[in-house]
Amino acid sequence: MMASRKDIDLICFDVDGTLVNHPSGMVIWEILNIRYGGSLETNKKRYRMFHEGDITYDEWVALDIGDWLAAGATRDEILACVAEFELVAGARDTVDELVRRGYRLAIISGTLDIVLETLFPEHPFDDVYTNKLFFDDAGKLTSWRATLFDGHGKPDALREITDRHSIDIRRSAFVGDGENDVPLLGIPGVVVAYEPRSVRLEKGADIVIKNEAFTRLLDIFD
Q1: pLDDT score, position 38
Q2: Low-confidence ranges of the chain (pLDDT < 70)
Q3: pLDDT tens across 7-32, in order?
Q4: Which class in CATH covers the domain with range 5-21+87-220?
Q5: In CA terms, which of 10, 32, 126, 208 is 20 to 30 Å from 100?
Q6: Taking the domains of the chain in order of start, what are their residue ranges?
């Protein structure tokens, strides 16, 4: 049974497709893979390999970022790609208002840390779970740390956050859009599918927001 929206203390968000968008609809991984010599077909092939169990999440990340390293990727080049993205209209005002209303906010996403840090540098999220990139003093990409908390790891991140802040997991909510958010269905008290790209997420979510402003969340979490 879905928790009452009045009983929510924590709201967690996905990033790509939820808080930020690219004009093409692609996520940062796809944009960077193409920037560093890949293709849409390569993106699709690796996605299939992961979901069919041929490679692990870490191996998938290593394949992608390995290509960027081989191409000599730099922070400035990656930032230029990030600059093609923008915050979803109303996202900043909405999350600021949710904090003002007393909600604790967090990020659980397969995005790259540089996306959130660049597009939302003064964000109000207490806990941030993303993939991370590392650069040397000259700005050259040197290494990465794959998140343990994408896809089937997202519920583990939610449990860590709720345990850390002594929040009943049923008093949490999640807002996302993609197939990698599906493992969270039925775990927090409320799952919101915002402009969902995943049929399974849309069918399983407690609330679906389509063709409406991001500020619609303020009517849900009042």
Answers
A1: 85
A2: 1-6
A3: 999 999 999 999 999 999 999 999 99
A4: alpha beta
A5: 208
A6: 5-21+87-220, 28-82
